[in-house]
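My main concern about presentation is that the manuscript never shows what a single data entry looks like. An entry of this sort, consisting of the sequence and the corresponding backbone structure tokens, reads as follows:
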Amino acid sequence: MDPLIVIILGLALVSVLVGAIAIRNGRAYNRSVAIIKRLRASAAGHDEAIARSEAEQAGLLQALDTGVLRVDSGLRVVAANPAAHTLLGRPPGTLPGRSVMEAFLDAGVESMAQAALGQGTALAELRRADADGPTLTVLGRRADGGGLWLIVADVSELRRLQRIRTEFIDNLSHELRTPLTTVSLLAETLSREAEATDVGLPPKMRDRIGKIEVETGHLVQMVNELLDLSRIESGGTLHLVDGLDMARLAAQSAERLRLFADRQGVTFRVDTPDGVPPIRGDGARLGQVVVNLVHNAVKFSPDGGEIAIRVRHDGDEVITSVEDHGVGVPRDAQDRVFERFYKVDRARLRAEAGGGTGLGLAIARHVVEQHGGRIWVESVEGSGSTFSFALPAGGGGNGRR
């Protein structure tokens, strides 16, 4: 074949191949452009959704009556809504850039914020320095992106109502105590005179006099416990001492109820092993907790029943427990037994043990929590209950000496 023809055919083939490659690359380019356009549209839509969400969040924060502050890991305010400025008595827009200490002027809030960074959440309460300033609670919660959210709420009205309630209970209890004490003494005297053989009262009359004495005793107990609960809830002073032997205190407190238990046909034993570390606490108040728990156990124990009082060391806590083998606490009542005035079904109570005020366990809970501890119940209905409370070993508590 003529060499010139071969060259021409080769050039034609190369042209065809180049054209095919160009067409393929053009299609690939068009596909790439289309993909890029779709990605840009998706990104734009995503950015628009984020912007919408941020705008909605900002609008919500602006409308809230609760103060919200965003704080960085260095405890400096990054952002704050208008309510936060109002509650803290600051001009609008002046909180961002300030430290937590500068914003709140309270060392307790700063300590709370540091604690929240470490443990995830913490709570503090403060009263603004100005005379008419509100009482505020500040909740610190660790944010997912670092730093904290501080939620500020005005609890002035709640605290005012709590003071009114406390004062009402206190005044009412004081007003009732004197006449009830007089009636109780008269009922006791009348009961003793009725038991005399030479009086000759009918049996029904003696029985009624005995019931008057018992019910008067219940009223006196309720008034005394109302006063106790009122003082405890109002943050009454605890007389804290170091080196308190909880094992010895539990044994002494339980012994105070030995006669009552004997009358009900109930025995109890105290298990206090050696090596239980001392605690820091108010001996009188903690003794009252043990007495309340043992008294409760006796009331719900059957004739011939046994109550076990134990004190043990577990980690950094000293745990005291009172175990009985009585009727037990229903599952649906176990979360409520520490509420004031709450009582289980009276049909479960021993008739000869007398009723209760529904305040003993509430008092126990408040005392334990004042010491920085916790209290709980474990029970199987029909098989008995174990009430326990744990206190920090070697110290702890929020009371004042």
